[in-house]
Amino acid sequence: xxxxxxxxxxxxxxxxxxxxxxxxxxxxxxxxxxxxxxxxxxxxxxxxxxxxxxxxxxxxxxxxxxxxxxxxxxxxxxxxxxxxxxxxxxxxxxxxxxxxxxxxxxxxxxxxxxxxxxxxxxxxxxxxxxxxxxxxxxxxxxxxxxxxxxxxxxxxxxxxxxxxxxxxxxxxxxxxxxxxxxxxxxxxxxxxxxxxxxxxxxxxxxxxxxxxxxxxxxxxxxxxxxxxxxxxxxxxxxxxxxxxxxxxxxxxxxxxxxxxxxxxxxxxxxxxxxxxxxxxxxxxxxxxxxxxxxxxxxxxxxxxxxxxxxxxxxxxxxxxxxxxxxxxxxxxxxxxxxxxxxxxxxxxxxxxxxxxxxxxxxxxxxxxxxxxxxxxxxxxxxxxxxxxxxxxxxxxxxxxxxxxxxxxxxxxxxxxxxxxxxxxxxxxxxxxxxxxxxxxxxxxxxxxxxxxxxxx
Length: 456
Known about the structure:
Blueprint: H1 4-10, E1 13-14, E2 29-33, E3 40-47, E4 50-57, E5 63-66, E6 74-81, E7 84-91, E8 96-100, E9 104-108, H2 111-123, H3 139-156, H4 162-191, H5 196-204, H6 211-216, H7 219-225, H8 227-230, H9 237-251, H10 255-271, H11 276-285, H12 287-290, H13 294-307, E10 322-324, E11 330-332, E12 341-347, H14 352-367, E13 374-380, H15 385-395, E14 400-404, H16 406-416, E15 423-427, E16 433-435, H17 446-455
């Protein structure tokens, strides 16, 4: 249940205030970033369990403004410049000024609060604690980093206004615990170390009705251990989901935390690709809950669309993304199709399952070496081009390597309905997909599958 991507996207600080539209003429935030090319800037914040997302365009000189209509008086907002996370504190009638270079600096209004939240976001950023795809996981290194980062976060709390000191302290403690649970879980998964007792002790401290439990994502760990989840009895996933919505409604008192769990469960239900009849029965069964949470229902409907099969065997590729080779040359995916069968590996250096497939891919490529009827291509989803180049330099792969252009790569992944990697595509000589979700190189039948495609 503990989904790091979801946790860190839903993380923001809700503060008491008057619900009204933003009317100030000046922007809530004025920003400038030292970047080589303009990027989209995305603002994410939470209000009573609903996650709001707004994207603005950066100008050619790196400037961007945010003047959104906040549904509360003030809020802490996560800010993504491309894929790099930052944080700032915004308040109606004031303007926070932010400059992003190697890090973020603040002037204007809300400086102390913005310094805290920016450091808080970056200190507990989940990817800081995940090893590279082929690197060993060392728990003590992660713990040492976490302790150091928490100390730096706590050092900024005395400078913020009094009304925020307590909630900022609770948030820092909660997010520290959430990252520690992640570290303990990774040590168990990667190294076989049993941390169950330590994890149970941390989870026992979680208050399921505290805002910080939702905002840091640790609520998901609490739910996994809860009696209502573990002792649930149901004859189908549909019956289970409807029962859990009701149980959460009766067990929790914090409406925002209810909505957060409903959103997660509803989206998970759609991952199972239920029939139209089951979807209709699901929404009828959870109507007492979702009638109070229209934005959650909207999010679940989006998940329904996301997990439906968008592309089927025989379809053409839906978009034509730009690809960049290690030497910086650009082409489009269509330039690589139409002459042979093409087996494509979509991966990233930070994706451990992706990296585990590389030795198998090497064997498959070697098996078909000299066969001019099939081409092998790997396309990276890395945002960090240097990490990608470093990995290629280390491995010296004997097949074509590219990295997605960010914008057109995202468009391609969305159009294909690809929400996770590694992902393998098998495309015929007619440029149509033989398998939009092909077998992995580690599949024992991969040789027969590729030969069948060649001889088709």
